[in-house]
C-alpha cells in the first residue's frame, strides 16, 4: 500500500528541518570560541522536529509546543521501543528559550554541549530508523 503522499511530504519536511538543526548544532561548536548556547538551542530544535516528524508519520496530532516531555510521551505511547533512547531528552526543553534572550544563565561548558549533541544524534537515528524512507519510490 502506498503511503499518503501528503504525509510523506510533511514527514520529509520535518526531518529536513531536524537535520538542518543538527548540522547547525555541530557547526557552531567549530567556531572560535565555540557557541555552546546556540548548539544547545539547535539540539533542542532537532529533537523537537524529529519527534514531530514521527508523529506526523503516524498521523498523530500534536499541539504547537517546544515541550519535549510532552512530545516524548506521545511518541512512546505510539512506539514503546523509543522509551530508552528518549529517556532524559526532556532536559533539552529549556534550551528552546534559555539562551535566546539576555539573562543570568551561565554559558554552558563545551563538554556539556558535546554530550547533548551525541544524545541528539542517537535520538535522530532511532526516529529515522522507524520511518520508512519517505523519498523512496512507491511500489
Would you kindly provide a written description of the structure presented here, covering whatever features stand out?
The protein is mainly α and 139 residues long. The chain has a single domain, classed as Nucleotidyltransferases  domain 2 (Four Helix Bundle (Hemerythrin (Met), subunit A)). Helix content is 59%, strand content 0%. It is built from five helices and no strands. The mean pLDDT is 92.
CATH class: Mainly Alpha
Query: Could you tell me the mean pLDDT?
Result: 92
Poorly predicted sequence stretches spanning 5 or more consecutive residues: none
The CATH topology is given as: Four Helix Bundle (Hemerythrin (Met), subunit A)
Shape type: globular
Per CATH, the superfamily is: Nucleotidyltransferases  domain 2
Please identify the structural class as seen in this structure: mainly alpha
Estimated radius of gyration: 15 Å
- The number of helical segments is 5
Helix and strand succession?
HHHHH
How far is the N terminus from the C terminus? 8 Å
Percent helix among the residues? 55-70%
CATH-level-2 architecture? Up-down Bundle
| Count of domains | 1
Beta-strand content: under 5%
Number of strands: 0
Major sheet attributes: none
Amino acid at each position: 500500500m502506498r503511503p499518503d503522499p501528503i504525509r510523506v511530504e510533511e514527514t520529509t519536511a520535518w526531518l529536513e528541518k531536524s537535520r538542518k538543526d543538527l548540522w547547525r548544532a555541530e557547526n557552531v561548536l567549530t567556531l572560535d570560541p565555540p557557541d555552546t548556547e546556540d548548539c544547545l538551542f539547535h539540539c533542542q530544535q532537532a529533537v523537537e522536529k524529529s519527534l514531530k516528524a514521527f508523529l506526523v508519520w503516524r498521523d498523530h496530532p500534536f499541539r504547537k509546543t517546544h515541550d519535549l516531555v510532552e512530545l516524548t510521551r506521545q511518541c512512546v505511547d505510539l512506539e514503546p521501543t523509543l522509551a530508552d533512547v528518549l529517556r532524559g531528552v526532556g532536559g533539552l526543553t529549556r534550551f528552546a528559550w534559555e539562551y535566546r534572550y539576555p539573562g543570568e544563565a551561565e554559558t554552558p561548558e563545551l563538554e556539556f554541549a558535546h554530550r547533548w549533541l551525541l544524545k541528539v544524534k542517537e535520538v535522530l537515528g532511532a526516529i529515522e530508523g522507524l520511518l520508512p524512507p519517505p523519498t523512496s519510490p512507491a511500489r
